[in-house]
Every structure is written in C-alpha cells, then in structure tokens.
Design a protein that fits this description.
The structure holds two protein chains of two kinds.
Chain A: H1 6-12, H2 17-27, H3 37-44, E1 48-52, E2 57-59, E3 67-73, E4 76-80, E5 83-88, E6 93-94, E7 108-111, E8 115-121, H4 122-131, H5 133-162
Helix pairs in contact in A: 2-3, 4-5
Chain B: H1 2-7, H2 9-30, H3 35-57, H4 62-120, H5 127-182, H6 190-229, H7 234-244, H8 250-263, H9 271-297, H10 305-358
Helix pairs in contact in B: 2-10, 3-4, 3-5, 4-5, 6-7, 6-9, 6-10, 7-8, 8-9
Classes of the chains: A alpha+beta, B mainly alpha.
C-alpha cells in the first residue's frame, strides 16, 4: 500500500496549509517574537477564522473586546470618531489591547473588502499562559513592547499637532 | 408592544434567556432517561480532559490520548470496585441484618417517650399504633425497593456501559463540536458568545472539580470519624455522606439519618453514640466549610443560599436525586448566561441609540 497516495494522506494526515500559513503570519509579527514556532502552531489551532464582507463592521467602539485579530486576506480600516487611524493589510493585526484589558473597544474596525480574519481570544491566551508560562511571559513582554511603541507613536503625533 | 419590549435591553435579554432556558429544559425532558449517564460523563470529562491535553502535548493524537485516558479510568474503576465492592457488600448485608433491631430500638424509644409524656403531662400517645403505621410504611418501601432493585441493576449496567463510551467521545470530539456550534454565531455576536461560553465552562469545570474533591474529603473524614466512635459499617456511611454532600445545604442533613439509625441499633439505646454520630457529621461539615470550601470550591458559584435551596427543591421535584445534584451548577450557569447576555445586548443597544440621540 502506498502511504503517499492522496486518499490515505487525506484520511490520516488532514491538510494543514491554513495552519502553516497563519503560523507564518503570526511569527512575523512582533507579538510572537522569540516564541518557538511549535508553540505558535499549537496556538494557531485554537484560533478562530471568520469571514467578513466589504464594509462589514468587525467591531465598534464601546463593544466588549476579547481578542486580537490578524488579517489573513482582505483589508481593515481602523477609525475613531469618524477619523481614519490606520489602513491594515494582510499580515497586520489589531485589537491587541483586548488581550490585556477587560474594557470596551476604543475604535471601530471595518472591513474594506471581503476579508478573512483570524481571532485569537483572551481566554485561549490565558489557558496557554497557564500551560506554558515561559512562552506566555515572553508573549506578554511582546505585547508590552507593542503597546509602548504605539503609545510613543501617539505621543509624537500629539506633540506634532500641538506644535 | 412586543417590539417595544424587544427594543429594551432588559426585555430582549429576558426574551433570549427564556428561549435558551426553554430549549435546555425541553432537551433535558427529552433526554431524561439518559440524563444520569450524560451528567456523569460530563463530570468525568471535566476531570479527565486536562490529562488528555497533557498527553496530546506529548505528541499523542486526540483519539489516542482520549483512549489512553479512558483506559486509565476503566482500570482505576475496576481496581476500586474489586477492592471496595466486596467490603461495601459485606457492610451492606450487615446493615440489612441490623435493620430489624433498629426498628425495635425505635419502638422502645417511642414507648419510653409515650410513658414519660403520660406520666408528666397526662398525654396519651399510642406509640404502638405509630410504630405499626411506621412498620407498614417501611414494609411498603421495602417491597417497592425490591421491585425497583432489578430496575436499578439494569440501569447500573447501562450506566457502566454508556458512561465510558460517552466520556470517550466527549474527550475526543467535544472541542470540535463546540467550535462548530459557536462558529455558527453571526460575526456581530461571535466574541460575546465565546466570552459567555468561556465564563460558563471555567466556572462549571471549577465547580465539578471542587465538589468532587470536597466529596472525597468528606467521605474520608466521616469514615474515619465513624470508625473511631465504633459505629458499624463506617466506610459505607462515609461513602453515603460523601455522595450526599454533592447536594448543598440539604445533603449534610440527609447524611445524618443513616448514622443516627445505626446508633439507635444498640439495645439499650446509647445516647452518647447518637451524639457522637451527629458530632462526626457536624465536625466534618465545619472542617469542610472552614478549610475545604474556601480553598477548593470558593467562588465557583456566587448565588444566594435561598435561591440555591429553592433550586434544589424544584430540580429535585423535576428530575429526582440527580436534579438535586445538578441544581447549583445549573443555576450558576444560568446566572452567567443572563449577565453575559445583558451586558452584550445593553452595549449593542447603547451603540445603536447613540447616533439617533445625536440627530
């Protein structure tokens, strides 16, 4: 029996192209820096892909947020008080504050085209941190770095506006 | 009017919550013959799932890890039954032979009390009539128990076959089934759905693990206590106290009945033994309330005691003993779902009314 036959491959080795691709995308973000690929891959298996139509709201300001979102396909714009803050493309992520704070979202996210988004929920992160505290601590440090960088960027923008 | 109610966050929450409750109740009624194996399997799943996850992280497939965990469970159950069952059966038959003398002791106490009342207060209570009525009732219960005995044996066999099978499929497929169901939620409610699910799952898992550990500790403590005071069948009584401890508030009171009946067995009646039997339960309950519950079951449910007691009575009336056991976690789950729904719907309504208010 040829174990390489596609039928047997399908039966015993389900296709995991999506998982490999999403793992690669997450690994290239600052959130997963210094985290082993194997761990990231295991985590990706627990994430939730969702499909959005063009102009569909991903979330609104004031809604309860529980996840960070990675764009696999399509695009998303981030707005606050009708002001465009960012236009995001595949490989970008947003909403990472919800992984730390149990507070409502502070901006609107709208799909600019038909998009596939990958949701990484806070509850899954919490379980992973319990299971792998070392990698979990590294992930938290990475989030802190990302948030600090965004805060710094906002401060610079504000000071430029004032001056 | 209906539109008005549905537009209000509270009205919409109550409507959706009532719909969810109705579906769950309907399912519970439809599945009532299988309710016990399903609940037992979920309890075992909550206990064994972490073990299966550990094996999976070591490189086992989901099916292999589920099967391994199940094999461990079956072996442990077989070992426990082979060691404990003959001992428990021996104690049960000893208890059976003691029952007639227990009834005699009760009659003797009844006679003493009626004589005392006649002498001191002039009250004539015919204790033999009361005892006769009691014996007739006990005889009826005994006959019913004998008829029910064969049914219980069949149910037990079905339970022993069904529980491992359901548990295996729960460990193997529950996550996929859960993801499939929650992925059906619309994009706008997806995060809220997962948030509520995780809160419910976390609280239920904590509760089941906590209550099982608590019952085990209660069983050990009372068995040792009954053994020390010299009560017959201490391990059987301890096991009964452990199982009854699954029912909050009412369980500990029910757990006192059997030890008191056995303490009454001694002729002449030894009052100190009755006191000692009650003390064992009370001390075990105190240790349970002061040490075990705060460290093991604390915060697992956050409900008012009155709601819990009413829930136990209502669920017990609907689904019998198993209803009494599942009343507390069911009420806690309903509480989380209601709060989560209200929070999500209120936020959504506020967001929808904000632009209208601005215009």
């Amino acid at each position: 029996m040829n174990s390489q036959h596609p039928l047997w491959q399908n039966l015993f080795r389900p296709k995991d192209d999506r998982i490999s691709e999403v793992t690669e995308m997450w690994m290239s973000t600052p959130l997963f820096e210094k985290i082993p690929e194997k761990q990231c891959r295991e985590l990706v298996k627990t994430m939730h892909p969702r499909h959005y139509k063009k102009a569909e709201k991903v979330f609104s300001s004031g809604e309860i947020g529980t996840s960070v979102v990675l764009i696999r396909n399509g695009g998303v714009e981030i707005k606050a008080a009708e002001k465009l803050l960012a236009e995001l493309t595949p490989g970008d992520f947003f909403g990472e504050v919800a992984l730390i704070l149990d507070e409502p979202r502070t901006a609107d996210a709208i799909a600019t085209e038909d998009s596939e988004l990958i949701f990484f929920l806070r509850s899954d992160l919490e379980e992973w941190v319990k299971r792998s505290p070392g990698s979990g601590a590294q992930f938290m440090l990475n989030i802190a770095i990302v948030l600090a960088a965004r805060l710094r960027h906002t401060n610079i923008l504000l000071s430029l506006q004032n001056s | 009017m209906i539109q008005l109610i549905f537009n209000h966050p509270l009205g919409r929450t109550v409507s959706i919550f009532s719909l969810i409750c109705s579906i769950i109740l309907l399912l519970a009624i439809l599945l009532s013959p299988l309710l016990v194996p399903i609940i037992l399997s979920f309890a075992l799943y909550a206990l064994l799932e972490p073990l299966s996850e550990i094996l999976e992280r070591q490189g086992f497939s989901r099916s292999a890890s589920s099967l391994s965990v199940l094999l461990v469970l079956v072996c442990a159950a077989a070992l426990a039954f082979s060691v404990l069952l003959p001992h428990l059966a021996k104690q049960l038959s000893a208890l059976q032979t003691q029952l007639p003398s227990v009834w005699l002791s009760i009659t003797e106490i009844g006679n003493n009390v009626s004589q005392h009342l006649l002498k001191s207060l002039g009250l004539d209570i015919n204790s033999s009539d009361i005892a006769q009525h009691f014996f007739t009732q006990a005889n009826e219960w005994g006959t019913t128990a004998l008829i029910e005995g064969s049914n219980i044996l069949i149910s037990l066999t079905i339970l022993l076959v069904l529980v491992p099978i359901i548990t295996f499929f729960l460990i193997r497929d529950y996550h996929s089934f859960r993801n499939y169901m929650l992925d059906k939620l619309p994009n706008s409610n997806f995060e809220m759905g997962w948030l509520i699910y995780h809160r419910v799952a976390h609280q239920l898992q904590e509760y089941i693990r906590g209550i099982m550990i608590q019952s085990g500790i209660m069983c050990i403590m009372t068995s040792i206590g009954f053994y020390i005071i010299g009560l017959d069948s201490p391990f059987l009584l301890g096991a009964t106290a452990g199982v009854l401890n699954l029912i909050p508030y009412i369980g500990p009171l029910l757990a006192m009945v059997l030890p008191i009946l056995l303490a009454l067995n001694k002729v002449p009646v030894e009052l100190w033994l009755i006191g000692a039997a009650i003390s064992v339960i009370v001390i075990a309950q105190l240790i349970d309330s002061m040490i075990v519950i705060p460290s093991v079951v604390a915060n697992a449910v956050n409900l008012h005691p009155l709601i819990v007691i009413i829930g136990i009575i209502v669920f017990g009336n609907l689904f019998g003993f198993i209803g009494m056991v599942v009343a507390t976690p069911t009420l806690a789950t309903a509480n989380i779902i209601y709060r989560g729904l209200y929070q999500g719907i209120k936020t959504s309504c506020d967001l929808n009314t904000e632009p209208a208010a601005e215009h």
